[in-house]
Amino acid sequence: MVRLRLSLALLVLCIPTISRAQLTQLPDAPQPSSALLSTPAESQTPESQIPDVAPALVNYSTSASVASVEDLTGLSFYLDSPTATLIAQSTQGDNHGDPRPKPSHPVALDANGNPIPLNRQQPQRILGFMPNFRSVAGGAVPHAPGWKYNFKIATRQSFDYSSFLFLGLTTISAEGINSHPALGKGADGFYAYLWRGFLDKTDGTYIGAWLLPSLLHEDTRYYAMGDRRSIPIRILYVMSRQVVTRTYGGSQTPNIAGLGGKVLTQVISRYYYPAGSSDFSVLATKFAYASMRDIAFTSVREFYPDIAAHYIRKHREKAAQQAARDAASITPAP
Fold first, then answer.
1. Cβ atoms within 10 A of the Cβ of 306, count?
2. Domain ranges in the chain?
3. Where is 62: in which H helix or E strand?
4. What is the DSSP letter of 115?
5. Which DSSP state fits 278?
6. pLDDT class for 334, splitting at 50, 70, 90?
7. What is the pTM of this model?
8. What DSSP line would sit under 182-230, residue for residue?
């Protein structure tokens, strides 16, 4: 009963946070076209006066549907500022009286000015809520790493609303299975797990994503391999990122920042965990768990764009077929 009350209390606390996060405008999110917001209804041309209704209807319906799906899957949002500057936006307010204004939607471009395929794009959030701030789309121009930039990303990831949701779930799980008996059970045990879990999370993020990478000039962001290679090769690549990363210059180097961050996090945790919870075997288990968690999430970052792109292509096909059927059913005016 106590656990149920704590779960309900945590849910109530998270609802305002989620609401505020949904109202917060992402810095690189595409803005809606002012023309779409300001076009008066009376300025629309009657449908009977529109020439070539069928082709136009097919094109517009497909574009609108695709835009909504890409926004839904999160493939439109990017973190790195240089990537954002390479986004081609349709000109706002430039419809020239077109009764069917096309929706403004960004297209990410690579370093050569070519559009990045959907299956190589990295969204800011996976499935709309999982933070993916430290990934780089294939062929994109990433933001130059450094002390200030790394600190900004580490802070953003540490205090993102989704981090607190996961913290609550892991706290309930750890208290429920009695991971550290010395911390106790019930309300006191829940609180003991909660604040220690928060310190574990933030320590690991700041050490592994800001302090050590900035000191060692290691770029620990994830550069996806994409569908250029086979699935087994990509899986091996994902696992190798635990021990291999990039330097600021782009060459391969041992991932000292990533591994060192996990080790230092466990060393620091000895100062705020009880003696029975900070033995070497317990810390080694936590280190292994953190590594497996990173591999699992990195796998999602590697393969999610393929799944999202497949879904978008299927939706495009269905939208085009439906638009074609709708257009065929329209009888031209005599």
1. 17
2. 51-328
3. helix 53-73
4. B
5. -
6. low
7. 0.68
8. GG-SHHHHHHHHHHHHHHHHHHHHHIIIIIHHHHHTEE-SEE--GGGS-
